Amino acid sequence: MKRIRFFLLTLAVAMLASCGTMNTVPITGRKQNLLVNDEQVLSLSNQQYQEYMQKARLSADGVNTAMVRRVGQRLADAVVTYLNSNGMGGDVSQYKWEFNLVQDSNVNAFCMPGGKIVVYDGLLPVTRDEASLAIVLGHEIAHAVARHSAERLSNQVKQQYGSQILGTVLSGAGASTSLQQIGSTVFGLGSTLGSAAYSRKQESEADRLGIIFAAMAGYDPQVAIPFWQRMASATGGGSSIFSDHPSDAKRISDIQKWMPEALKYYKGGGTVPQGGVPLQQSNIPTIHISTKK
User: Comparing 29 with 267, which gets the higher pLDDT?
Assistant: First the structure.
């Protein structure tokens, strides 16, 4: 009987996988099997994001708020330009980018599907300058572009519900109650960290894409290494930004390995691939960060 149940469960998961769509992550080329479409994911995430923003306290610091929005939009513009130039513009065609700074002392930032990104002002003393902030925002934008939330949502569907909601999830009629319940777990805005628990694989992928995206926008990706060293010191060897993050030593080692690739997208580091829109590094000021509330 146990073997039969296991076989049926395996069959249900296989059915779910076969009914999904294959997606390719830009630049890394990793393949994903997604069981939910953009409309479903964006509907769920926008609902939770609006609920979160109604309760959040926006930063009263106009200078820092403007900086977060300026750096974020610069990154988003560079990434969208690159994707459009390389035939991948459809990946973000429904995104509506939004960058907010909120009053919270935690060293944290998070991204919702569709380009909704929140930075806690407790992070700014660690980033210290715009280039380092770009590393964080590049990482968060990478989560959105790589559809990590949709991937995690799809995995939760397969693991928790199998064939029970196969027809409902894939019917195209909108998000079901079950899917909404899973979405609440996946997006996790009610949690202390206020961010989805991405896998180590996804976090590493976001690290790689994040430094490349920063380079595309004209920020020196090499600042990522001292930034992560500061982050390790600030958080005692662990980072509250990432739920299932790699160790700080592993992250820094990987970033060093990926740096030659990122520098190809940076005007100061070599030839810029088609679609990259780097700016002169001299345009990036180091500024004094105020976190007064």
Answer: 29
Please, which residues bridge with residue 101 across strands?
Answer: 119
The predicted model scores a pTM of 0.77
Q: How far is CA 159 from CA 163, 182, 200, 222, in A?
A: 10, 11, 18, 39
Looking at residue 190, its pLDDT comes to 38
Dihedral angle sign, alpha carbons of residues 264, 270, 275, 281: positive
Distance CA 181, CA 117 (A): 22
CB 211 within 8 A of CB 137: no
Residues known to be catalytic: 140
